[in-house]
Amino acid sequence: MSRKYLVAAALGLTVGMAHAQTIKVGFVDPLSGPFANVGQQGLRGYQLVVEEINARGGVNGQKFELVALDSKANPQEALNALKQLTDQGVRYVMQGNSSAVAAALSDGVAKHNQRNPARTILFLNYAAVDPALTNERCNFWHFRFDADADMKMQALTSYMAQQKKVQKVYLINQDYAFGHAVSKSAKEMLAKKRPDIKIVGDDLHPLGKVKDFAPYIAKIKAAGADSVVTGNWGADLALLVKAGKDAGLAVDYYTYYAGISGGPTAIGEAGVEHVKQISHWHANVGDPESDALVQAYRKRFPDSKDDFVWLASRNVIEMLAKAMETSKSTDPGKVALALEGMKLQTFTGEVTMRADNHQLLQPMFISTFTKAGKAGAKFDLERTGLAFRTDGRIEAKDTATETSCKMQRPRI
User: Residues 151-205: pLDDT tens digits?
Assistant: First the structure.
């Protein structure tokens, strides 16, 4: 991304051509700092899907206008961005990177809406997966389009339980809400499904501040682990895997985010057949429409050397448009009601937005890092010659978990 474009995003200038009848949608994610590459990749994905739906005519003649702001992966910075968006009259906010930021935005949006019932905002979360956001911290104005950490861990541990070679597991995660959730659910679910598996380490490290993971890798080797479970993302995952590769660590990595920006390049050949990922989509799910999306991103952003990774962003815009068409309104309250219980047919299957806690149910995939060109591995990632192939598919109905959400509903 050019310096000029970054400055525009940081200042909250609109991305794309603005015109009088546009529907402004805000994007708040890290566009600078250690996770900038992840935020920029997410922004490019949203540009693609917004342009796609605008090319179809938008919603009832109105086109979407994307407004990008830099959160720096910091809750206070994100709240400052939220204030700037509300000042610009933006009524829809999208965010995904950092559950700590998502929690701050969810609370901030709810408070704003309570104070300003005539200027409500809807928060569309495409990737922040702390289970609390759709459980004890749920609110009417928040909708999540990715599976939460527990839903993903349920699928991941079911797969691990079937692998006899998994005997000693080391947990390493970022020290914030999401990382804690990954650690907790991994211990609980593995104990239930495979009580013979030993947890030989459980580390939490500062988010985005560790430059050298060699000391952590030394602990993993000393513990005799054969498997590592991590929810790390961005630089924290890339640096972890790189340190493991440099130290000759021979383990299987069970990850949430190995496929996002920088991960495939950092993993490299050392990860072939050793790195697993749980995700709601990857480039090689095998559907022609999915293939077309991969190719469209590469054509639109030929210089980025990365790939489209967040199918959730496409579902956000498609379901938002459908809700506006169904409700015949762009008012966030009416749109929220239309989103509840909504079903959408996508190229991975049918997805459903739960009405009771605003959590999307969708198919999920377990995939393994391998060499591109093999069966099921058509598209490589980040031009590495390496790719993910599907090992298993979990149907949407099988991803649902119980919820403790007691949602307070406003009068609309």
Answer: 999 999 999 999 999 999 999 999 998 999 999 999 999 999 999 999 999 999 9
Cα maximum dimension of the chain: 63
**What are the residues facing 203 on neighbouring strands?**
172
Are 309 and 262 part of one and the same domain? no
Q: Tell me if 377 is assigned to some domain.
A: no
* Distance of alpha carbon 37 from alpha carbon 209, whole angstroms: 16
What is the pTM (predicted TM-score) of this model? 0.88
Tell me the C-alpha distance between 410 and 412, whole Å: 6
Q: Are residues 324 and 217 in the same domain?
A: no
**Average pLDDT of the chain to the nearest whole number:** 92
135 vs 162: CA distance, rounded Å: 29
Q: For residues 124 and 187, state if they share a domain.
A: no
For residues 165 and 200, membership in a common domain is answered with: yes
Q: Which one of 231, 253, 279 terminates a domain? A: 279
Which 3-state string (H, E, C) describes 84-109? HHHHCCCCEEEECCCHHHHHHHHHHH
| Residue 37 and residue 128 in one domain | yes
Tell me how many helices (H) and strands (E) the chain has: 12, 16
State the distance between the two ends of the chain, measured CA to CA, in whole angstroms. 41
DSSP-derived 3-state class of residue 288: helix
Q: Which two tokens stand for residue 396?
A: 């949407």
| Same structural domain, 8 and 124 | yes
Structure tokens, 367? 């995939």
Query: Is residue 137 domain-shared with residue 28, that is, in the same domain?
Result: yes
Burial class (CB in 10 A: 0-12, 13-18, 19+), 118: exposed
Tell which residue, 68, 54, 47, 69, has the closest CA to residue 21: 54
